[in-house]
Amino acid sequence: MVARDILDQTGASADVVLKRDYNSTIDHIFADDEEVDLRQGNVFKTVPRCAPAPCNTPDASPKLAFVVDDAWEASVNPHQTGHSLKRLMGLPDGAKLMRDFESPIDQPITDDEKVIFQDGPVFTVKDFSLTIKVNNNKVTVGKRRMTGLEIKQAAIAEKVKIEISFVLYQLDKDGNLGPAIADDKIIVLHHCDAFRCVAPDDNS
């Protein structure tokens, strides 16, 4: 694809140009008619058309987005295994990872199998569940993308003592509250994510 075609797919205005995102302070800006090889990196930014056009440094690595069930995580390592890819995506060990083909038949990926970015970065996962915590209670869910409302509903179904009207917060690794999660906000879940759900007048 050429750079402008990629921008058009995102609905970007004519006032911006495409920039490949490198693990570097210097990225590469594409001309509108410049061909873009997605095998060399599929993570981009937009910048104003009037911005200077530096070239990436020779030792810079492009960011690579691996996608599982429409949720993505970026890495600079194009050489993964089934196991490392599950770790990157926050999936449990028992998840069955499949390479997502444009056909009814997908290719299973074993834990020790080599997964090369250039062979295709899009996957799906089957026969899995994630364990998250809500108010220190374990809650098992069967999908990675859930709204705040769905997370609360799942917790209530597993007898966590909260109400639908309560406010949901995600906890960081140190146990600190993040911003309140709206009922319609979609969260990409990872194994062992933790949440606090409290009455609207209690955010302690």
Give the gist of this structure.
The protein is mainly beta. It has helices spanning 3-10, 82-89, 148-157; strands at 16-20, 28-29, 44-48, 64-68, 71-75, 79-81, 96-99, 107-109, 114-116, 122-126, 130-134, 137-141, 145-147, 167-171, 177-181, 186-188, 194-198. The mean pLDDT is 89.
The outline comes out as globular
Question: What spatial order of strands do you see in the largest sheet?
Answer: 5-4-10-7-8
Number-wise, the strands total 17
Could you tell me how far the N terminus lies from the C terminus, measured between alpha carbons in angstroms? 50 Å
- The low-pLDDT segments are none
What is the chain-wise order of helices and strands?
Answer: HEEEEEEHEEEEEEEHEEEE
How many H/I helical runs?
3
